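Model: Ready when you are.
Researcher: Fold this.
Model:
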Amino acid sequence: MALILDGEGSTVGTASPAAGGDLIKVGSTESFMADVIEASNSVPVVVDFWAPWCGPCKTLGPLLEKLVRQMNGAIRMVKINVDENQQLAAQLRVQSVPTVYGFRQGRPVDAFAGALPESQIKQFLSALTGGTANPVDDLLAEADGALEGGDAEGALALYQQVLQVDQGNTKAIAGYLRALVANGQTGDAAQILSQLPAEMLADPAIAAAKTKLELAQESAGPVPELRARVEADPDDHQARYDLANALYAADQPEAAVAELLDLFRRDRDWNDGAARQRLLKVFEALGPGHPVAVSGRRRLSSLLFA
């Protein structure tokens, strides 16, 4: 992704050639003393021994770079091509690639070989830095909490901080989109979605945010007004349907599902079964393991076979 825009057209996350320039270097036998041994006296250094012909290296290398950038200066990375630095690789007993060493205080203190999953690499980097947590993970948790607590503007600012460090973070992109919708900025969310590549649109979190936007665009007013209409006339099915859409857009999926189930209970055939169709769409967007989806499917089944 080259660019994400905020509501005013300014940059939220951009690809920057200089980003991580001091944190990630291409090393060699000649520069190893300065880049790794000496540098690790000030900050831990992770060394990635790789080769152009190595398939797993093409996965591990970019993942390591991303996580090192996310550590925001708490660790540095040096990439060593073993084909061009065979003597150095032999000295460090690199028997296969990828092999990753962690240096601290001028000495290798940890290592692993092969492509590990992201969670294990995070643990490796955290241990190398003395337990430093990944700040992106902390920011994401804080942003999610702000959004769930109804602070859409605060969440936007926090997701933006993540994207400035990691522009391709799909969780942050999805959260930013959800926060825009919750803040009433549906046009801005639609603009960002139009810029995302197909592989990102296929990500479950981003697909769920897209569904949230679609539901928000279909709602016919703010939650308080729609709720007042439903309370005034409980058999106003359109108002209840619109209320469910508005509730889901406002990050209240449990309340949205409750309204749709009530609508289905009252008139399952209304508008060609719109309540059931919308419930299925919401369940798909939430994901099969989401508690609201699990409970909602169970309640829908009981109504279907009642």
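Researcher: Now this one.
Model:
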Amino acid sequence: MERSIVHPRFKNSPHFKDFWQKGNGKLLIEFSGAEVSFSEFEQFSPYYYHVDETGDQVVKDVYFTKKFHEATREIEKYIRNGVSENDQVPDSVKRLFKEVQKKPEWLNEELLKSGAELCMRSGLDALISLRDYCLIGGYDYAYLNKPLIVTEALKKGAVKRLSETLDFWVNVTRYHALDIHAKGYEFAIKTRLIHSYARLSIKKHYADWDTENWGEPINSWDMMATYIGFSLVFLHSLKKLGNSFSNEEELGIFHLWKYVGYLLGIPEHLLPDHKKQATEYFYLWSSIQPPSDKDSVLLAHSLLDESLENPILKFSFQRRNLRYLHICCTWFLLDDEVCKRLNIPEVSNKKVFPQVKKATNIIYNTLVGRKARIEAGNKKHLKVLEDYLRITSGSNFH
């Protein structure tokens, strides 16, 4: 079937104009020095219908030919031991590992280190940013979320989803995490194949998938936008919360996520090197996304209510307070119009906690040395992850 041509169909819509002329989009342009236009739209738009064919073929050859746990063990063996041309494995597996076992020429280990250090030294601000800006803000893009809805992520529960996202993020943002055969490298390859598995399952079982409007499930352009969330949007959130970072750290974040994206099978030229490029790419992609729909609201409220469901905190008043703090941060970090579309609850004194956090961060970052902040932030991340894994691993939570 001939594929329809993608147009920036929402470029004149109120939600698009408000974001880029008055909201966080305007701030991103100021933050990055971006020069936004639609002159390069046609270079990117075909990727709305582009997918990771190599990963898809590995899933067909390995996961679809045996039991899931057996296939997972087989893939883990390939990741940890490597694959050579002489190994008796499917050709698709050889293609995949020939690609990921060779580090690209542009890879800079010092920039990877700087990016990892910024993630670690950001401490709990990193987790607030990921949750209350990157993740919940992404729910405002209705088409982007359709794979989550179709694969019934809501039934899985926000605690489990958040645990998996945190597990991935922590493990790809530590020192040497992305070395070949290391844990972050393993997470990236597994995540790539989970995406392929989900995409093929959607195409097989969900007859109502609207490819023309929604693109291919988990397509390359949507993947680009997701990883801009981990870099550009993440940095912008840290800045809003009173954090500062060097030029090398900033470039390091983009470099780290460029390499993670490369391992995940996203075409290299879709992965930005710096904030100006990222903002310009994000501008083009957002013009094909409508604003929140009822599914977006359900996802947002599932995430907000995660604090109430999560048994990490023992007492209900602690959980209610945590939910309140996340709501405050969401209003502080996101546009008011986005919060209203997602039906984020209005709460009293919603600016107090974020403003105190911002002031505290400015003082903390001035008084405490960089190395100490890296060590402290890393410990906080590992503790939060340990708590989440304790309540979700092997428990079939939700």
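Researcher: Key takeaway?
Model: The CA atoms of residues 152 and 325 lie 28 Å apart.
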